[in-house]
Design brief:
With 150 residues, this protein is of the alpha+beta class. 37% of the residues lie in helices and 25% in strands. It has a domain of 103 residues.
Length: 150
């Protein structure tokens, strides 16, 4: 009962935007250019398993997968609508929130297949166990989220 969950409405809006950006690369580039305040023509996308964004040919950002990129790109305007003060948060805080939100995805942003959550526990004699968590798509091989907690 104490688990964090997304509201159905938020999830639906987020997922609609994921599909829109995934299915229209120009739309994705225009939105990213607006966020970064740069010319969309100078942006480029590279890779799939490891995904990057270039600006004027230089790599400026990387994600663990194309699926993670589309999830973050779609979450940004969604959180801006739902979270008062989103624009006042620093870049690092917004980036961390976007990445953490991916843990709540149930379907792959790249191929729509179900995602699998995998937890690995590394036990320690002297400290609290470290639990590594990943959210992966078995269908297309995309890693959507990875993190750890004690």
């Amino acid at each position: 009962a104490d688990d964090l969950r997304l509201t159905d409405e938020f999830r639906e809006v987020w997922w609609r935007r994921i599909r829109q950006f995934r299915d229209d690369e120009e739309r994705a580039a225009r939105h990213l250019a607006t966020v970064l305040d740069v010319d969309p023509v100078a942006l480029g996308f590279v890779g799939e398993a490891e995904f990057g964004v270039t600006y004027e040919g230089d790599l400026i950002a990387e994600w663990v997968s194309e699926a993670a990129f589309y999830a973050d790109l779609a979450a940004e305007p969604t959180l801006a609508e739902w979270l008062d003060g989103w624009d006042d948060l620093g870049d690092r805080r917004r980036t961390n929130l976007l990445a953490g939100l991916r843990a709540f995805l149930e379907r792959c942003p790249a191929c729509d297949a179900d995602l699998q959550q995998v937890e690995n526990v590394r036990q320690s004699c002297c400290t609290t166990d470290l639990v590594s968590v990943s959210v992966d798509c078995e269908s297309c091989g995309a890693r959507v989220f990875s993190g750890s907690y004690r």
